[in-house]
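To close the chapter, one final illustration. This time we ask the reader to focus less on the individual chains and more on the assembly as a whole: which components sit near each other, and how the overall shape emerges from the parts.
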Amino acid sequence: RKEVEQDPGPFNVPEGATVAFNCTYSNSASQSFFWYRQDCRKEPKLLMSVYSSGNEDGRFTAQLNRASQYISLLIRDSKLSDSATYLCVVTPWEYGNKLVFGAGTILRVKS
Amino acid sequence: NAGVTQTPKFQVLKTGQSMTLQCAQDMNHNSMYWYRQDPGMGLRLIYYSASEGTTDKGEVPNGYNVSRLNKREFSLRLESAAPSQTSVYFCASSNQGRTNEKLFFGSGTQLSVL
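The assembled structure is written out below.
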C-alpha cells in the first residue's frame, strides 16, 4: 500500500462548480499535512497547510480526519485558473525531514 | 527574487555518461532537497541536506551522489546514468528543515537517458 494515495482523476468540472479531493495516508503517526499545487510542466507550490481543526483560505477549504487517516481539499466556485494537479503531502514524524508526496489529482475546469 | 535556481533545464545523456545538476537558493535556507518526479509516482526524495556540511539519503538514493558546497548550493551527481534515471528532477529548499516548513522548489530539470 502506498503511504499517500490520491485519486489521479482527472476531475473535469465546469466553471463555478464545487469539487472535492480526498487523500488517504497509511502512517497513523503522521504529523503534518499539506496541499501543493502543480501546474503542467512547472514546479510544485504550497497551496495550504492542513490543520487539525480544518482551515479555509478563500475558496479553498482543507480538512483532516485523523481517525480515518485522510485529508480533503474542497474548492468552491471553480475558476479556469484552478486547473492543475493537486498534490497531497504528509510528513510522518519518524521520517524527520522526509515529506511523502502523493502522485496527485488532476483537475480540469472547463468554461 | 530568484528563489531556487536549477540548471540545466533539459539534458539528454547516453547510458553510462555522468553529469551534475546544479541548484542554488538565495533565501538563506538551511535545508535543501533533491526530488525526482515520475508519472504516477509522485515526488520521491533522493537526498537532502538539513544544514551546511550534512547530507542524508532519502527514499531513492541509489545511483546518485550529492554535495552541499555551501549554504546556498546543493548539487546532484549521476556518476553513470541509466535509463531508469530518466525523470524530472526538482531541487527544493526550506528554512528550518522541520517538517512543517514550506518547501520552495526550483523549476525542474527534464533528464532523458538513452
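The longest strand of chain A covers residues 30-38. Chain A has a mean pLDDT of 91. With these observations in hand, you are ready for the problems at the end of the chapter.
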